[in-house]
Amino acid sequence: MSVELARIALDVARRAAELVRGPAAHGVTVAATKSSEVDVVTEADRASEELIRRLIGEQRPDDAFLGEEGDDVAGSTGVRWIVDPIDGTVNFLYGLPQYAVSIAAEVDGTVVAGVVLNAATGTEYVAWLDADARDPGAGTATRDGDAIVVRAPAPLGQRLVGTGFNYDAGLREIQARAMVSLLPRVRDIRRLGSCALDLCHVAEGSLDAYVEEGVNLWDHAAGALVARVAGATTELTVGAGGKHLLMCAPAHGFDEFREAVREAGFLGSDAPLARE
Question: Following DSSP, what letter does each residue of 19-76 receive, concatenated?
Answer without folding.
Answer: HHHHHHHH---EEEESSSTTSEEEHHHHHHHHHHHHHHHHH-TTSEEEESSS--B--S
